[in-house]
Specification:
By secondary structure, this protein is mostly helical. It is built from 10 helices and no strands. One of its GO terms (molecular function) is DNA binding.
């Protein structure tokens, strides 16, 4: 399966709610970063900034509810949940219940879909799809650790139960390109998966964030409540 064939599975006549929801969630995140006095709002007939943000957030919620009813867990849903979670943190705050509930749903989807164990290449997946799944997990893992360290709450994705293999340090054009060029690019990478020429790609940031997330996970674990056998109930 090629990247074009993969995209055709959730666009066009096969348009899926995960793809629609991602559009709304990403648009909402962009809207949060857009000031209310931007010419876009002044020179057009768009609703007020706060009204439009509420409408987009609600649309993302509706798409997520459709996906939940379908009970179909995949990397597209993980991507939607990550983007919607980021939207909720920007809209309601990092410590809000809305954001925390979204994080719980995200961790459940990661575990249920098996992305937490997708560290090694799966023969049933083409290389580009395996890299996409790695990136989805790495992003979800990073977001979970950011919330845990910022709010002092326990992380929901335990690093001891996850395969912490980052995506390869390749550009998106190479990953979705032809298989021969992709194979050549992989051969040129360093043994640890980094670009030996030091070029910055989108996946470079994903890899760095995963490394930071692992460090944060270990810090959170070291600051957890000490194990005290005397306070534990004994089974009789």
């Amino acid at each position: 399966m090629t990247a074009e064939e993969y995209v055709s599975l959730f666009t066009g006549e096969r348009l899926r709610w995960e793809a629609v929801g991602n559009v709304f969630a990403v648009a909402g995140r962009a809207l949060v970063a857009t000031p209310g006095d931007d010419p876009l709002f002044i020179e057009s007939n768009l609703p007020a900034h706060s009204t439009l943000l509420s409408q987009i957030s609600e649309a993302s919620d509706i798409c997520l509810s459709f996906c939940t009813r379908a009970s179909c867990s995949n990397e597209l849903l993980v991507s939607l949940q990550v983007n919607d979670l980021m939207l909720k943190t920007q809209q309601h705050g990092d410590s809000s219940y809305q954001a925390w509930r979204r994080l719980g749903d995200l961790s459940a989807t990661v575990y249920f879909s098996g992305l937490h164990n997708h560290g090694q290449e799966d023969d049933s997946d083409p290389v580009f799809l395996a890299q996409l799944k790695r990136g989805c997990f790495a992003t979800a893992f990073y977001v979970d650790k950011c919330v845990a360290t910022f709010l002092g709450r326990p992380p929901l994705l335990n690093y001891r139960h996850c395969s912490l293999v980052p995506p390869l340090d390749l550009s998106d054009d190479v990953i979705v390109g032809d298989s021969s060029s992709l194979a050549d690019a992989i051969e040129e990478l360093a043994p640890d998966g980094w670009d030996p020429q030091g070029r910055a790609h989108r996946t470079s940031l994903v890899r760095i964030r995963l490394l930071l997330a692992v460090f944060k996970a270990k810090v959170v674990e070291s600051t957890a409540a000490p194990y005290n056998q005397k306070t534990l109930p004994n089974a009789k």
